[in-house]
Amino acid sequence: MTVVIAAINGKGGAGKTTALMNIAGEYALRGGSVAMIDMDARNNLMKWWTDCQEKDAQPEGIEVYSHKTARGFERWMEGNAATFDHVLIDTPGEDTSLVDPVILAADLVISPIQASKREVMGAIDSFESMLRVNETRGRKCRHGVLRTRITVTVRHTELYRKVRPIIEDKVGTYLFRTEVFERNVYKDIHNGIGTLQMQEVTEAIAKARRETQALVEEVDALLAGTAVAGHAA
Ligand SMILES: Nc1ncnc2c1ncn2[C@@H]1O[C@H](COP(=O)(O)OP(=O)(O)OP(=O)(O)O)[C@@H](O)[C@H]1O
Ligand SMILES: [Mg+2]
């Protein structure tokens, strides 16, 4: 069965594209076939892909497609999704008209956040959209909030401490235990040098790789229904 994962947060710059690149790289490394769909008019993902091609650094096992309309996306899904193990959908930070069709196709929605109020609000909006689509269309899509660009400073903020009680207790969705730290390599991969998993393993890369492996394990557990909110250390 094809697993469909979408990154959605209506507030731009939260780390959607980066998270999907890393997850795609991990699945590809495990030998899976991955399709990534760039639905963002700014084409960040597609640009990364063509840059990778120019630098002869296109990852094996990953294909990137571009669809900017719900129609085009739905047609592609109907005709092609089944031929891939994973379909990862990158959505724009603003255009909300694409949210429902993407959720309708997804098994899991990941909403990345940095520790800012507007991004937490954006993640909550995405969760509520998912609940509405699940309810009206009889779907069982899951949702998780992913903290990204974490630094020591961020960890000392009040909002950071409040994120878990807000997301898991008040809102009632899942907060990934894995946090994505602020790391240069996550910026560097945007320059068309392939995926994180293709980089020569230095100490810094090894840390990013471990973080990504933990994230993907959690993604798989969430999809399998074995990850439960509030039950981790
Ligand atoms: N964990 C991280 N560490 C360092 N830099 C990061 C990290 N995550 C994202 N970035 C950087 O932050 C910027 C925004 O990230 P990204 O493009 O993934 O967000 P996005 O949610 O896709 O944004 P948009 O809504 O604009 O598409 C990029 O320049 C990226 O390199
Ligand atoms: Mg993006």
TrEMBL record:
<dbReference type="Pfam" id="PF07015">
    <property type="entry name" value="VirC1"/>
</dbReference>
<dbReference type="InterPro" id="IPR009744">
    <property type="entry name" value="VirC1"/>
</dbReference>
<protein>
    <submittedName>
        <fullName>Chromosome partitioning protein</fullName>
    </submittedName>
</protein>
<keyword id="KW-0614">Plasmid</keyword>
<dbReference type="InterPro" id="IPR050678">
    <property type="entry name" value="DNA_Partitioning_ATPase"/>
</dbReference>
<dbReference type="InterPro" id="IPR027417">
    <property type="entry name" value="P-loop_NTPase"/>
</dbReference>
